[in-house]
């Protein structure tokens, strides 16, 4: 105990100096964390006020916070007397090793920058990418968050998003509904066409321009298939498609026109046994 007491007394000034530095460094880091949250949130709100897409603003917000946290840590270490140049060199060497080990994460980060730059979709768009279909909620540094139609949240790595075909169903204001309706071979084709015309003409959500298309698509094995194609606003797509399927089925039933299903004829042959 005497040894420790004497050691403290002999180095009292040094211990006091480093204690103050440690306290100040911890305060710098604590304050930096608080400020990084406030600054990143302020930047996010500023981007939203400038009508920047919320998904992009969230990406910039998270990136800003990470960069500020790195700067705060360097400032705290510098206050302790650690040479930041040496520290940066160590970070660079460690970063190279980490980069080799985390190639996938860096690929996701680079893909996030591409999404933010080229903007193939925005928050609120219904897209299909990387085998997932849903509404885009947020673009983060390493992943894109989507909500599926059955309200499941899916986190998709950005590299998978940019590495696959991206289908954006919300970009264009209109979409075409393609229906294939099969009728029996003994059906009156003119009567079928008139039924389809009447249904499409009377539906209030089907656009008049471009004009819908009705025609015989193919002579299939079990039916004559009609192509029934109409244009609607993108937000009305599923409503009109459900309505048309139901209306066409009921109209064909009322007209006595059959909708055949695949059939197989089985012929049995008897053989006389000796």
Descriptive account of the structure:
Strand 1 and strand 2 (132-139) form a beta hairpin. 53% of the residues lie in helices and 19% in strands. It contains 8 helices and 8 strands. Helix 2 packs antiparallel against helix 3, helix 4 crosses helix 5 (103-118) and helix 7 packs across helix 8. The strands form 2 sheets. Strands 4-3-2-1-5 form a 5-stranded antiparallel β-sheet. Strands 6-8-7 form a 3-stranded antiparallel β-sheet, covered by helices on one side. The chain has helices spanning 2-10, 12-49, 54-79, 84-101, 103-118, 158-162, 189-202, 237-254, and strands at 126-129, 132-139, 143-147, 153-157, 167-168, 174-183, 213-219, 224-233. It has 3 domains: 11-101, Orthogonal Bundle (Helix Hairpins); 118-168, SH3 type barrels (Roll), CATH 2.30.30; 174-254, 2-Layer Sandwich (Alpha-Beta Plaits). The protein is of the alpha+beta class.
